[in-house]
Amino acid sequence: MSGMAARLFKYLPFNTVLVLSFFHFEVQNHDVRLITHPLIVQANKFDPARIAFEEIASRHLKDIEIAETPALQNLNQVFAQMKEKGFRSFKAEHRVLPAVHVSREKLLEVQRDWGWVNELPLSQKNRIEIAKRDSNLAQEDWKIPSTQELIKNKIKEVVGEEVFEQKAREQETRDQQARTNTAAANLRFQGEIQFDRLPWYPELAVQAFWYEDNVAKRPVNVDMSTHRYTATLERPIGSLRARLVDARGQILGEGIARISQSDVSSGRGPALVLRPSMATLAGNLDDFKDRKDQSFSASRGEKKLAGKPRVLFASYGEESAADAFGRFQFDRVAPGSWGIVRTESSEFYPSLYLTQAGTEAQWPQFSKSMVLALLDIAKEKTVASAVEENNSIVFGQVKQDGRPISGLRVSSELFPSQRAIYFNELMLPDFSLEGTSSNGYFAILNLPEGFHSLIVSAGEQYFSHQNVVVDENTISFTEIESTLKKDRASLKVFDAFSSEPLDVEIEGQSWSEVFQASGESQVYLPQVNRLSLLKAKPFDRKYADAIYQYNDLTDYIHLPLVPVQWIMDLAATQRVNLGPSAGTVVGFVQGDHFEVYLPHLTEFDPDNIVYFDAQGRVTSQGQPGGGFVVYNLPEGSQSVVVLGKDSNLLSSKVIPVDQPSLNVLSFSY
Questions:
Q1: Residue 445: helix, strand or coil by DSSP?
Q2: Nearest CA among 52, 58, 59, 4 for reference residue 31
Q3: Residues 470-493: pLDDT tens digits?
Q4: CA 521 to chain centroid
Q5: Residues 274, 243 contacting (CB under 8 angstroms)
Q6: Could you say which DSSP state residue 184 is in?
């Protein structure tokens, strides 16, 4: 019991009565006290129990002498010596200590000696350490720079204040994301369910789910008596997806809403708007001169359109004709597909549009007289051209959150010397303007045919971008949207066949700087519906550099990395003769058996298309979870079309092919 008794008394609470008796001796310079008879010690908050114990012990044991024992003697030998000498036991007695007053100086002395804190239980020790730290902070001289401030100032001096502030902002962003993730645990919010051109009656049902990384994570509670939903999530990320189904399970309508931290922080979620399921690529054509307020948000189908333009779904080689009000539609096209639509008419200049299935876009037609006048004025003004004139025109409008915006410059990323022409408030081309006027209109002439990226700048800063497809003697129409609203999207980088997380360097159109991504991370995207591209450069050089597509409205971006040797081995196995500067496409297809088409390339050798399964092994046909490789694609804008055999839906992508290059695509049914 060496030292045990003293520690026992030390940690007993105040106002404790102890009934103990003992004798005392020393063994190898250790204090040993054995309990034999009752001893009563009473303490209070000013007189701890251990003080009363020590007083009684010192008074009763001062005349007891025990010989020191050699280091190797055991306890039995000690007791033998004690028996020969004898020892005195304590008789029971009642001891009450008088109140003791401690001076301030003595208290401060005790506070400076913190060694006793180490003997306290962990919970009590932590509480005392916190109190001590708070006290030190309160007494600190705030006029003197802290150590942290001195270090921060020194770092600023070494790396420069601008670099330091940038890193500090990046760290704050990471910290904010971590705080958001923590606060969002079991996040609960409600929102409205709305119908657009859909019926509702009790026999119908609305099914809703929370999706993350394109995977259904959890059902969402729907109350159609109030037309509201209630969602409970772990994280404010992903999307809510709902569908309207009848008694037979047929899907009548669908809706999707991005989950935003700003929307749900107050418990209020985004509206879920259900619209008719549209496996179509559709649009409405109108005459540009009839547009209200010279805006691209014209009313649909209010006026008849002269000429009844022929409409070609160029990506699939299918042709149709617009009706008297300019409406056209191509069926069996999977929602989210991107395709090239071309229109021709006796009244209008040939037009080209990069459009998306699942929505009804409003596309303007431009009279031949208007376009030819613009070309003539440009020639008179001797607008310089760095390329051969081909009478191609990119015509568009720059908007922010749906409204035209002025003072912005538009340029072609590949041909920045091709100067944009801007239109003044009278809708006349004004060659003195260096940026958009209040209507946001611009035109760029004579870009070579192919895939082009347009960049919008505010001064030297990136503002927005848009991709267009250009053809000679054709006007390509586009709207370049921007928004202040950004939301998080999950970004995953992994081996395409083993799913092993990997590291890459990413250069994307939606980000002004190159950044590194490792495995799973998060990025911020402006909430704009557009086709965007990114280039991924893997750290591990056994994987190929590749171009990937994404929509800025998406809540996830997946980058499956493909081994270079696997691409070469697949070609060798199938005896594909690779051209010296051939473009290659690797596609992954989920949810359906499929077949790949390139209908616009009528002379393309089908032996250049190789199918593989989920493990990357060659197969005779497309399988769910597998994919395909297309070798020897010619340079330019190309459309890759996948036909789902079970769903009977076409899914198409439009890609830029630079020789040599690799595009990696993902299709889902």
A1: strand
A2: 4
A3: 999 999 999 999 998 888 899 999
A4: 6
A5: yes
A6: T
